[in-house]
Amino acid sequence: MPSRLNPYISFDGEARSAMEFYREVFGGTLSLNTFGEFGEEKAGDAADKIMHAMLETDSGFTLMGADVPPGMEHKAGNNIAVSVSGEDAGELRGYWDKLSADGAVSVPLEKQMWGDVFGMCTDRFGITWMVNIAQRPA
After folding, report:
1. Where is the Glyoxalase/fosfomycin resistance/dioxygenase domain (predicted)?
2. Residue 112 contacts by C-beta under 8 Å, 6 or more apart in sequence?
């Protein structure tokens, strides 16, 4: 398998619902593993929390996520955004519509000065997304 780079998002108890939501947005196959499945002795109340989730889509996307392990503090920040880009306007607008629903739009999805259609939103789980629809050369 070749090396790959993909986002891995930490959640504070919402990994299951967030990853299921992203499966609705992007489609694909979602695998979920809980702390309890792996016999995490310290899991206690976190036995049903997600230790590792991986969404692999037909478009070639891989998105991973997990709940913060027992005993660790969740530190939310604004130091990362997940970017989805390409030329398939219908597909990308579909992602945008679902990601921005029940979220907050900071940059509306519209044509930008560089010629592409771009938007930025924060989804209902607090994750920032950037969607860029590249304009095909004339």
Report:
1. 5-131
2. 118
CATH of the domain at 102: 3.30.720.110
Query: How many domains would you assign to the chain?
Result: 2
Q: Has residue 75 been placed in a domain?
A: no
What's the rounded mean pLDDT across residues 48-75? Answer: 89
Structure confidence by residue, pLDDT tens digits, 129-138: 999 999 877 6
Q: Is the pTM of this model over 0.90?
A: no
Distances in Å between the Cα of 68 and the Cα atoms of 17, 29, 103 are 14, 22, 22
The 3-state secondary structure of the chain, one letter per residue? CCCCCCCEEEECCCHHHHHHHHHHHHCCEEEEEECHHHCCCCCHHHCCCEEEEEEECCCCCEEEEEECCCCCCCCCCCCCCEEEEECCHHHHHHHHHHHHCCCEEEEEEEECCCCCEEEEEECCCCCEEEEEECCCCC
* pLDDT of amino acid 46: 79
**What does the alpha-carbon distance between residue 40 and residue 42 come to, in Å, rounded to a whole number?**
6
